[in-house]
Amino acid sequence: MFQKPFVTKSSQTLRNSQKRKLLAQLNCLNSIKNNAQAVNIKILNHEGVRIDIYNFDKIPLLFQVDGDCNLYPTVYLSWLSQSAAPVLLIYEQVLKFLKNGADLMLQGVIHNKGSLPDFDRKSPIAISYIKDNGTICGPVAIGVTLMSSIEMVANGMKGRGVQILHIFGDYLWFPLGNTEEKEKYEETMEDLVSYIFKIYFFIEIFDKFQLQRCFLAALKFRIGRKFTLPLDVGEFYSHYLLRTVPKNKQIDMKRTRFKKFSKFISDVNRNENGPLLIVACKNKGQISQNFKNFILQFFIHEIKDRSIIKVDVLYSLTEPVMPLFSLLGFAKGNVLTIKELRELIRSYIENLNHDKLVRLSDPILQNVSNRHDEDIDCNALIQSIISRTTKVYSITFPDGRNIVRKKDLPKINFKIEVRSGNKKVTLVNNLEVYGVECARFCQQVQIGAATSATCIKEAPFCEGAQILVQGNQIRFMSEILSSEFGIDKKYMTGLELIPKNKK
């Protein structure tokens, strides 16, 4: 039912009375927070069937098919509550047939005498599977029963038993049909369960110690002595502290015991070595660092290896230089680094017993350098030969993929434009050339800079998607690209448009 992309027709936030009426139909009422925001999304699937999806805090937990009185839980909700639906257990080998759209045949159901749960015909059912090592995983699918439990046993557990409506990894699993995430999703079941519990129940992921470490790392390594202080408290929290949080963690200050960032600052300032931050209560509050503090001086931040985007300049061998490099065992089109080229050429020259000045008596050197001087400096000769090769760019992506780009490498271009209402927007071009996923980058900007960011698929003078961000966010985005993606700022243009710090 959700194996292919669907079309969203409308979206409406439910009133509290509507939400209570909806939840009254469930046995797992306690699994959904009372203050969760409920949204009814009406969609049309690829078969033309109208379906209502109910999101709670942006997570799809329920759905209802047009013409069917049943309210079905999603895989998300079946993880949160064991009472969401009765569960059938299957072998792992059967799962691949369900993912391909097949109904569940009863021959694939594991059962012993009296082990089947009680359920009626045309009722919601969840499917879990058992691994070869005996581990039970799931539920991984939601369906509707085609027989009651009594009829299944009476038929000798043969025939079509369950029509699968929703399965782990389909387009309902990724809210609103997020195809990019669906294709790249490779996490384990255990990781997913942990993820759902974190984002839905807001388990306090960060204890005080971890929060302090991020705080100290932001002070010492994100700001540093060279940064112009004082700094706005809100800017420090959103642009510096949050960026030190590990990718698999999250901070929601309102759900910690501090509730407010100002109370956390007061707490960390209570130490025998003096305050870490000096807060001046002007306007929204500004902070200055106390670099002499013992804690800050001796704080060591554990920096783990991170996957970065690496750009290398290489040189492709062309026809004019092949008389020399064919003797060295290379073929046309082979790529070498500048260091390798210099060493190979210098080695050939030294074998001819030349001093610093090279006498071009060797016909091969004359041919590949296109120089006919009697004497030439060795470095000048090497540079002449290298100039007859073609410069190419090797881009290594974080997932290990590598491409060699033979045409010019466009730089990441930042541009400021003024739109209607005298509002400034930042345009970013050519991110995808460097392997940056624009959708994920937009999400980082939205969270880190607290502003809107959108992808424009086709834009002039831009390879790949263009990103449009409200306001001048060049400083923030360039820092993300250099610190988290490892892209050197020499591959960026428009950095001169970064607002100057007010003194």
UniProtKB/TrEMBL annotation:
PANTHER family the UniProt entry points to: EUKARYOTIC TRANSLATION INITIATION FACTOR 2D
Domain SUI1 span(s) in chain numbering: 412-485
Keyword Transcription included in the entry's annotation: no
InterPro entries: EIF2D, eIF2D_SUI1, Pre-PUA, PUA-like_sf, PUA_eIF2d-like, SUI1, SUI1_dom_sf, Uncharacterised_CHP00451
Swiss-Prot/TrEMBL keywords: Cytoplasm
CDD domains from the UniProt entry: eIF2D_C, PUA_eIF2d-like
Protein's name according to its UniProt entry: SUI1 domain-containing protein
GO BP terms, alphabetized: formation of translation preinitiation complex
One Pfam family it belongs to: SUI1
Annotated organism of origin: Dracunculus medinensis
One GO MF term attached to the UniProt entry: RNA binding
